[in-house]
């Protein structure tokens, strides 16, 4: 393949920012959008613009798919059926599993397992309440339920609240049955839930209240909301596409491609889940991303095809050129999103990395469907793309007198005004982000209709708020303490006294030794709930000063572990590593855009504007959830902190999606620039060609994200609001305002690339030289 042109216009002798003779300055009417609406004379092509040549790889791929449509469709049908059957037979389950190697919380948990302290596996409470009565009068029902639970598969041990110290409330009305499972019960499936309900049947038959605490409560959480969310997103997409395209055929094609890609991606994810541990929210996040980008990518291709049909009579050739142009943008956009999501692994936490991998998988499968199945369907429809019209179809603008060309003219006359105004809007929206408070959300943040939330409330009311988030103190003794029982008992008394004196402590249990006398274990109950700021302060005090002070003068080492400690450590870890993830993602996206568009300024500007956009989205999330502005309308009954991994996930996803629209817009602008050498005309043409389709795509993707507000998970609601708002901001303020305004201001500097950097960068252009303006090319 012939080496493609770089597309750069600098020869090394030109100063960046200089304009060729006759180029309009800001404040004057840009070339190509004169006052009369007539286009100005074409400018000479910039140096290095690609010469016509044989069709490139993407062009040939698109044309082949169009000419062999039924083969492509058959392959996809077999692939979908095969993946679905394989997922059903060998697919894995999804459950939250958080490990933090190298941290004190993880070391403490490992020590407990290594020295046989307590039951192994994952524990979950079942809260049993007798109302104003006493549980002691229901002994037979409790013993029957405990026995039934113990006979369930995957159950290691069950505690009886009537005989276990600390498991019965002071008034005797509420007890906690603790069940130890071999694995996380959240991923056991609906059939297991039915057996669990049967086991506790004697309690309910005795008119006792039974609520499942987390993580068992996650198993009982409603699952139908995700399917409803996907249906709502598709319904809105149908409406938007009908209004945008005006025909049923053009509407159905992007939807069919997106659904096929999503189904294949989710089935593949299910197969991977059998070998890789994915969080419970992984398929929901993957569905959000896969459906949104799948519709977007097919929409951009379909729009470009309809425009090319005006000049290319043979449909297969029009499809080839569609894939050669917009298909290249799809390829770059998908690679950018996947790169951003892969950057989550830089945080060093597998829980976050696998969430990004799940979303990235459906994005890449959606792009593959768009680049193969969409061309095949376009080839079948041919010139019948506008059949079954519901209104007069609207295609890409063919002249320069349409609304978007006029809007480009307004931007070109006052670029500074629009640039500053847009940045001001984003800055105001970002203000709440300065007050962000991160925490690992627990059942206390869930809607009151969920059983794990009701269990949480019962524990807080009857055992105290801190009983929902106790901290486990593990002290590893040195050899002399293990051998000397008197010194060990003295240390245990000192430890309890010192810890009880710390501010924010409600109670400290007497330290007990492990079976081999190597560990001292105690439970510290905070005065406040696990999401309260004071509990986080107590954890840090215990870890950093309280335990070291209590153990001073000995060779013993203390650790704070348990579910609450792990969640707080998780928050600290992500907060510390967020700058690294941001740096990795921004650097990777910068290099990708620099390689593709051969422009330093375009890559820098894209990264900076996306950071503004993400900060604004953070601000909205803080205002809605942490400050409670309208959160009750979303089914969130209390002000809650921001889930610790939401900012990191949002950054990767929003940055990747923002680059999607950036790539589609800049691809059209650069295309015109290489053809004419006129920066103003390139910006106006690119904006006019993509504004309507970007707006439609943004409405669809926003609808897909916001539809997931139906989920019962507060974390999913946070992601839905953050991602939905970010797409709106990006498609309006950034893409239709800030990007074109800044490109008008920087003029020819937009396309400057130092000669030395141009030589060092790899050349990414699957198309090679440009396709001739006419003719179908070889078959």
TrEMBL record:
Its main location: membrane. Residues 143-415, 453-756 form the Membrane transport protein MMPL domain. Residues 41-55 have a biased composition (Pro residues). It is found in: Cell membrane. The chain crosses the membrane at residues 69-90, 231-248, 255-276, 329-352, 358-381, 416-436, 578-597, 609-629, 649-669, 681-709, 721-746. It is a multi-pass membrane protein. It holds the Pfam family MMPL. Belongs to the resistance-nodulation-cell division (RND) (TC 2.A.6) family. MmpL subfamily. This is Membrane protein.
